[in-house]
Amino acid sequence: MATYKAGDSKREEFRKYLEKSGVLDALTKVLVGLYEEPEKPNNALDFLKQHIGAGGPETADVEALKLEVTELKQKVEQLTEENAELKQKLSQLEPQAEEQSEN
């Protein structure tokens, strides 16, 4: 009898842990989603895998990152153009410097 109580206690602790960490809510939401699917998928386990982390990143975070990517792409383009211009100026100045050093 004592081992049965110890097992129950561990089980209850684990259940509380899962509840506190939000695992039970997440699993419940995914299972409800599967239940409410009009056409049940052939592989329920794949459905669970796909939807268990479906929350994904916050939309505001995604939008901020997209904006940052756009700005960085523009900066790269601007720096690439500036680099090409400076290379062109340098190539024009190098022959002049060689001529002056020869005289």
TrEMBL record:
It is found in: Nucleus. The lineage of its organism: Eukaryota, Metazoa, Spiralia, Lophotrochozoa, Annelida. The keyword Lipid metabolism does not apply. Residues 62-103 form a coiled coil. This is c-Myc-binding protein. One of its GO terms (cellular component) is nucleus. Belongs to the AMY1 family. The keyword Coiled coil applies. GO terms for molecular function: transcription coactivator activity. Keywords: Coiled coil, Nucleus.
